[in-house]
Amino acid sequence: MKHRKKIFFLAILALIFIALFIFLGINKGNWDYALPKRSLKVLGIVLIGGSIAFSSIIFQTITNNRILTPSVLGLDWLYMFIQTFIVFLLGSTNIIVMNDNINFILSVGLMIIFSILLYKMLFKKEQKDIFFLLLVGLIFGTLFQSTSSFIQMLIDPNEFLVIQDKMFASFNNINTEILTISIITIILVIAYIYKYIKVFDVMSLGKEQAINLGVDYEKIAKRILIVVAILVSVSTALVGPITFLGILVVNLAYEFLKTYKHKYLIIGSILISIIALVGGQLIIERFINFDTTISVIINFVGGLYFIHLLLKEKNA
């Protein structure tokens, strides 16, 4: 099957799941209530799935490693640290906490600053390699997580509830208040990154090969890291941290499409992500009556797949 036919197949499958999610069980009695609510929810899931898949695949391209996600840099926990620190410093009734759009813009701005500083530490000097990236990422992730936990023990229990809503991934409680600014952000990111799609094919060969072929590697890597930080902000602000979804969908896209071309891989991984999230949420809501959450299933399956990838790399 050619790449275009595979993409078309995934697109049809994604549309079927979206249609089932919106219209299954709907009738004249609940049409006015259920249709807008389900439409906003599925729109949020599509944005989350697209952001995670897109950020994961371009992050794996610049690191030239297929078992990494942006979570390794501690970006998810940085977002949670920002939320915790704002509530601790200003209180839960401050406009920065109450207004989701202002909170989102502030968080994205701080994560971009962090990404620029991280770039200067990791990529500016040639002797820094992937192991240094993992080490610094683990240290920052642990630092942000520990500091957030410490601050949460100091704040008022009522204000802690505000933070608790953001700590755990829940597709039953997507933050639809920031859907508009999320859509605008993603459109701007796609428009900005589109010109680099073909360059990603060269960068996936590795840093030295890409530089030899004329790619300004450091300049593009810095810009990609900023884009990754923005996309992680969008997905985390909408639903909360999800660790293994990126690894799962990107590697499935590689296995299914069997290509190195990012124009297919990016679209394919986004569609697989949408199928997994919308299909999973459909099964949980309509067939098993919320007995579990999709984030638990994703982290369980993704964790197993991560171990499989590690063993596969070890035996290669």
From TrEMBL:
The record's listing under InterPro entries reads:
ABC_BtuC-like, ABC_transptr_permease_BtuC
GO terms classed as biological process? siderophore-iron import into cell
Could you list this entry's UniProt keywords, alphabetically sorted: Cell membrane, Ion transport, Iron, Iron transport, Membrane, Transmembrane, Transmembrane helix, Transport
An example molecular function term from Gene Ontology annotations:
transmembrane transporter activity
Task: Answer whether the UniProt record assigns the keyword Ion transport to this protein.
Answer: yes
Q: Please give the family membership noted in the entry.
A: Belongs to the binding-protein-dependent transport system permease family. FecCD subfamily.
The protein's name in its UniProt record: ABC transporter permease protein
